[in-house]
Amino acid sequence: MRIRTTRNNAKWYAAVVGLATAGTFVLSTGSAGAHGYTDQPLSRQKMCASGGTVANCGDIQWEPQSVEGPKGFPAAGPADGRICSANHTNFGQLDQPKTPSGGAWPTTRVTGGQNYSFRWQFTAVHATTDFKYYVTKPGWNQNHALTRADLNTTPFLTVPYNGQRPPSTLSHSGTLPSGLSGHHVILGVWTIADTANAFYSCADVTF
Q1: Per-residue pLDDT tens digits of the chain, which is 207 residues long
Q2: In the chain, where are the structural domains located?
Q3: What separation in angstroms does the CA of 31 have from each of 15, 62, 120, 177, 194?
Q4: Which residues are within 8 A (CB) of 9 and not within 5 positions of it... i.e. 6 or more apart?
Q5: Which residues pair with 133 in a beta bridge?
Q6: Of 43, 120, 185, 196, which residue is least crowded by CB atoms under 10 Å?
Q7: Residue 165 has what DSSP assignment?
Q8: Using an 8 Å Cβ cutoff, are 126 and 193 in contact?
């Protein structure tokens, strides 16, 4: 009788632990800081995503949508040298001037002074203040992690969103800066209205 009771208790305890573990998994998955990136122009995190064009990027390959950091750029936000990773040390490959293989980041070809359609993909949507786009200056230092000194810190495009929630895919258009040539980085910043954070997306382009 005692043996049967012990076995029943053990089964009951195992079931409870199993449910608790499953519940924890669901909660942690549902609340993960998850959310969006640019795929036009193609961002570094999208290139690193599983099955993307750049291999061995580390954790970012599983979470291209999670480059979330403090908002308020350029006065606030991620530290210099950690802008593309939004201060996430486990996404540090995004800050490096070279890919993990040592080659240059692949670029999207664009033309200065012409209209361009920027596109974001979202895995979770948030009330949105705006989208802003910055670009590196002529003669910027391509051999180190991106800093504010490398960027024109006045956005060349601002798209207000007035607290609305975007659809799962969002495109908007704007004019690219003129007078640039060669390799540059376009930094897209998606600012969230009801949290203290924004999402950062670095894309390499060739003008």
Answers
A1: 443 444 444 333 333 333 333 333 232 233 334 489 999 999 999 999 998 999 999 999 999 999 999 999 999 999 999 999 999 999 999 999 999 999 999 999 999 999 999 999 999 889 999 999 999 999 999 999 999 999 999 999 999 999 999 999 999 999 999 999 999 999 999 999 999 999 999 999 999
A2: 1-31, 33-206
A3: 24, 16, 21, 38, 16
A4: none
A5: 157, 188
A6: 196
A7: P
A8: yes
Closest CA to 96 of 185, 158, 205, 1: 185
Taking the C-alpha atoms of residue 177 and residue 194, their distance in angstroms, rounded to an integer, is: 31
Among 166, 162, 163, 151, residue whose Cα is nearest residue 202: 151
CA separation for the pair 85, 95 (Å, rounded): 6
| Structural tokens at position 195 | 């949290």
Q: Provide the CATH topology of domain 33-206.
A: Coagulation Factor XIII; Chain A, domain 1 (2.70.50)
